[in-house]
Amino acid sequence: MKKLYSFIVSLLVIPFSANIGLGSLYFYSEIALFTKEAKATNWNAFNLNFKKGNKYLNSGEYQKALDAYNKVIKIYALDGPSFYNRGTAYLGLGKYDEAIKDFLKSIKYDNEKGNQFAYNNISVAYDNLGDYKNALKYINLAIDAYPKSGLYFQNRGYYNLELENYKEAEKDYKKAKEVYLKNKSTRMYADCPKVKNLEHCKLDSWFYNGLGVAKENLGDFRGALVNYDKAIEINYPNPNEEKFIIFNNRGNTRYELGDEKGACKDYKFAASIGDAEGVEWLKSKDGKWCGEMEF
């Protein structure tokens, strides 16, 4: 009996300072955000705390960022970017329900250009809550708002994997790759690191692992094997981050293709690099065939 497949995909949150091909994100000069009718007691304090919040958010000090944005919103509670930034701080703190509420408020108060980022982050928050149907709902809104982002298609592919919509997941990963490569040379990905064997900084090991999982579950084992091989060849972004998952997945595919020796090599290698469950499986009755296999 083979091991169960597993997968991991990095879901990407769009931070307040992100640039996704639309120029600077919609957190402009603070004063410019307000209408003539806006009334507040102290714009200087608003700007000071807004900038503090941005600084803390950039450095990952989410509680300090939250405290700063609380002060901002207390001064003026109709500013979309303030709610968006506070929502991002809540995400960093793992307070997903609060993050969703703030992102929804940012959509209410901000312009349509910024909504795509909030929709994406709402979907990520729902993913962390295990609510993949709502995650799918909001990533669809992000795609409708801005269909030129490969990230949104990749995230939707992951949600479809979780919902076992494997054909849709396969389509999403393929579309994500198409969009990523189409925009490869734009400002959108100006900060992409140059990595050997990498067509695009977003087409990393976990991207091809996700596509491989979709193909494996559709019964396209040779297609899955190609993608798992690619994921292992790329070995990016973090070669030590649960890499055993990809080897397990490739082992499953090899097993399905009748290559028990190749599968066992992958299972044993996965166990040697941190798969604690794999170590136990190799000792078990189900894994005995592999545990006793010699190469």
Keywords:
295 residues, single chain, mainly alpha
Radius of gyration: 22 Å
Reported for the largest beta sheet, the result is:
none
Low-confidence regions: 4-38
Mean pLDDT, rounded to whole units? 85
Strand content: under 5%
Classify the secondary structure makeup into a structural class.
mainly alpha
What percent of residues adopt helix (DSSP H or I)? 55-70%
User: How many individual β-strands?
Assistant: 0
> Tell me, what's the shape?
elongated
What is the number of helices?
14
- Distance between the amino and carboxyl termini: 19 Å
Order of helices and strands: HHHHHHHHHHHHHH
Secondary-structure topology with pairs:
Elements: H1 43-58, H2 62-75, H3 80-92, H4 96-109, H5 112-128, H6 132-145, H7 150-162, H8 166-182, H9 205-217, H10 221-234, H11 244-256, H12 260-272, H13 276-283, H14 288-291
Helix pairs in contact: 1-2, 1-3, 2-3, 3-4, 4-5, 5-6, 6-7, 7-8, 7-9, 8-9, 9-10, 10-11, 11-12, 12-13
Q: How does this structure look, described?
A:
This protein has 14 helices and no strands. The two termini are 19 Å apart. The longest helix has 17 residues, at 112-128. With 295 residues, the chain is mainly alpha-helical. The radius of gyration is 22 Å and the shape is elongated. The model is unreliable at 4-38 (pLDDT under 50). Helix 12 crosses helix 13. 62% of the residues lie in helices and 0% in strands. The chain has helices at residues 43-58, 62-75, 80-92, 96-109, 112-128, 132-145, 150-162, 166-182, 205-217, 221-234, 244-256, 260-272, 276-283, 288-291.
Short summary:
By secondary structure, this protein is mainly alpha-helical. The protein contains 14 helices and no strands. The two termini are 19 Å apart.
